[in-house]
From TrEMBL:
The lineage of its organism: Bacteria, Bacillati, Bacillota, Bacilli, Bacillales. The chain holds residues 404 to 630 of 630 of the full protein. Residues 20-227 form the Histidine kinase domain. This is histidine kinase. It comes from the Bacteria. It comes from Paenibacillus taihuensis.
Length: 227
């Protein structure tokens, strides 16, 4: 009868632990990556048949970092509280992560989120969900195009649209979104949307994707408006 409580306490501990681990592990990953790159540059001629080992090691470190990013970009080792959130504020933080990424990979961002929209949720979880969707959009642009984000309130729901002019998806891919480890990318984790769907569900929200191959993709997310 109190197993529910125990379960949520355990979840809380796991989630705090994960946040600490993510924070602690990121730095050594970065340092090791840097050292490997230095070694690779300085020891161009090494033992025969080992030339690729540096690259493999760096790729594997990058993979570990990407997995952390998909789960724990905003994670902080503190209680996971649910608050009333101002959507525009949340998007401002998300922009801080996404704009540099867009500058790096190509493509740009157009955002129109009015300051009046409020929903209930955990700030770091919500931001993680949004980043994972927008990151996919930027990656789908393959160097050029636009990601448009807009939001409004309708029938006591806050509605968020994230639309890109990227590669798009066919029916076969659309129906597999959110499946763990489902990826079509060389260096994908296939974990981003799984995490995102779970977060939106916990927040009593819904998400739908519309997409057309070669034209683009639009995600529509609905949350109950806070009042
Ligand atoms: P990953 O990004 O690591 O591949 P995700 O769960 O984030 O994992 O996405 C799964 C797959 O869904 C992607 O590999 C891609 O094929 C497809 N996808 C998701 N979002 C988009 C998008 N905006 N445009 C095109 N394809 C997308
Ligand atoms: Mg992704």
């Amino acid at each position: 009868y109190n197993s529910e409580l125990q379960r949520s306490e355990k979840m809380e501990i796991i989630s705090q632990l994960a946040a600490s681990v993510a924070h602690e592990v990121r730095n050594p990953l970065q340092v090791t990556r840097g050292l490997l790159q230095l070694l690779e540059e300085r020891h161009k001629v090494v033992v025969p048949n080992t030339e690729n080992y540096y690259k493999l090691a760096i790729d594997e470190l990058d993979r570990a970092s990407t997995i952390i990013t998909d789960f724990l970009t905003f994670a902080k080792p503190q209680m996971e509280q649910v608050h009333e959130l101002n959507l525009a504020e949340e998007f401002k933080h998300v922009e801080g992560i996404i704009v540099p990424l867009a500058n790096l990979q190509g493509g740009h961002l157009e955002m129109s989120v009015p300051r009046s929209l409020r929903i209930m949720g955990n700030s770091s979880k919500l931001k993680q969900a949004l980043v994972n969707i927008i990151k996919n959009s930027i990656e789908a642009l393959e160097g050029s195009g636009v990601v448009k984000i807009w939001a409004y309130e309708e029938h006591e729901q806050v509605v968020i649209h994230i639309a890109d002019s990227g590669a798009g998806m066919d029916e076969r891919i659309l129906e597999r979104l959110g499946e763990p480890y489902f990826t079509n990318k060389n260096k994908g984790t296939g974990l981003g949307l799984m995490v995102t769907f779970r977060i939106i569900e916990v927040m009593q929200g819904t998400i739908k994707f519309k997409s057309q191959k070669g034209v683009g993709t639009e995600a529509m997310i609905r949350f109950p408006a806070a009042r």
